[in-house]
Write a structure and sequence with these properties.
CATH architecture of the largest domain: 3-Layer(aba) Sandwich
Radius of gyration: 21 Å
Low-confidence stretches: 178-186
Largest sheet: 7 strands, parallel
Structural class: alpha/beta
CATH topology of the largest domain: Rossmann fold
Helix content: 40-55%
Number of helices: 15
Strand order of the largest sheet: 3-2-1-4-5-6-7
Strand content: 15-25%
CATH superfamily of the largest domain: Glycogen Phosphorylase B
Oligomer: single chain
Mean pLDDT: 91
């Protein structure tokens, strides 16, 4: 059997698809898997690293604004997506999949729409709390919509084809415990805090965290691991801290990237991060309390909507980026790590949002459709 996956734009759309593809390969080793992504997007690099072939189409996003630039972009997008539909048809005709599975990103629209038109079974997974434009456009054109958040069901009109599965996380997050992680992260006996940003808006938030690091170096309240997101940002933070008199850090470990994120996150008591769907599911898988600072630079402000769900459930605190002064961020971290009972309650609340069987749930939905 041949399985077609389509996803792209962010790791949050790509990694769940790879997790499902890996499990399918375990269950059906003779099956063939092909991914379809958008030209010039990160999926064209990430997917082959995981051992899968990927084809590309000339898909484009649509802007929701009505400014002249948005209108021009959308006019050009119509032409690009028309071409993407033709390219998708050619790929599907040649590959002959039994099902097409989309896990997010605008490339899903032409691929899943064409698959549906050609009589191929289709599944779309929505990992965010509020469905994005692509999901809304495809809701009535796919056989099944799978949800990462159970509460998302209220935003869909066709309840018959909706199913809650949760969102898959990387396998490392399922196998790590605090005991195992203690050998993989340098932390003291103090409360341990991990702060990490994605690429969007990372420079702005790294500026904020520099003052937080400086204050904690002076007071030594917690052990802090900060991931800058780039070598350039790492160099800048070190330079700025040196100018503040903190060239040698006693309570902080700075890294540009973390290749052992599950180990480090598992050992920390509190995580400060953005609010992408996959990050939130990783936090839930480990039961990690969090301070979430949603990126305002993403389509439809979906990170803030994700963060609100976790905040309202009691697993996280939320600070909007526009309100996030260094003083407020430090105070929030300090007050949280001092209150062990609060951390315990937040951890318990976060754990209730975990979906440990998400990958298997999606696999079951796939198999049910094609049997």
């Amino acid at each position: 059997m041949n399985f077609l996956f389509t996803c792209g734009g962010t790791g949050g759309h790509i990694y769940p698809a790879i997790a499902v593809a890996d499990r399918l390969k375990e269950l059906l080793p003779e099956s063939d898997i092909l991914f379809v992504g958008a030209e010039d997007n990160m999926e064209l690099e990430l997917v082959p690293r995981s051992g899968y072939a990927i084809a590309s189409v000339k898909a484009s996003s649509f802007h929701r604004g009505m400014k002249p630039g948005d209108i021009l972009h959308n006019l050009l997008a119509i032409g690009k997506n028309a071409k993407a539909l033709r390219q998708s048809r050619k790929i599907i005709k040649a590959f002959r999949p039994v099902i097409a599975i989309g896990t997010g990103g605008y490339v899903c629209y032409p691929v899943l729409r064409m698959a549906n038109a050609m009589g191929v079974k289709t599944i779309l997974h929505e990992s965010n709390a509020i469905p994005g434009l692509t999901t809304r456009l495809l809701e009535r054109r796919v056989d099944r919509v799978l949800l990462g958040f159970a509460d998302s069901a209220v935003h869909f009109k066709n309840a018959k084809n909706i199913e809650y599965t949760g969102t898959p996380v990387r396998e490392g997050f399922r196998s790590k415990s605090k005991k195992k992680a203690e050998t993989g992260a340098k932390v003291s006996g103090k409360p341990a805090v991990l702060s990490v940003w994605g690429s969007l808006g990372a420079r702005y938030m790294n500026e904020k965290i520099t003052e937080v690091i400086a204050k904690n170096e002076a007071e030594g309240l917690f052990s802090h691991i900060h991931v800058t997101g780039s070598e350039e940002s790492l160099t800048t933070i070190k330079k700025d801290l040196a100018a503040l008199g903190h060239e040698r850090l006693k309570h902080t470990e700075l890294k540009s990237y973390l290749h052992d994120m599950p180990e480090v996150m598992a050992v920390c008591d509190l995580v400060v991060s953005r609010a992408g769907a996959v990050t939130l599911n990783e936090l839930a898988s480990l039961g990690k309390p969090a301070i979430l600072i949603p990126s305002p630079y993403v389509t439809g402000n979906h990170q803030e909507k994700n963060a609100v769900v976790l905040r309202d459930r009691g697993g996280a605190l939320m600070i909007k980026e526009k309100d996030c002064t260094p003083a407020l961020l430090y105070r929030t971290i300090a007050e949280t790590v001092k209150d062990r009972e609060k951390l315990r309650r937040m951890s318990a609340a976060m754990t209730t949002m975990d979906a440990p069987d998400a990958t298997d749930n999606i696999i079951q939905s796939v198999l049910n459709l094609i049997k």
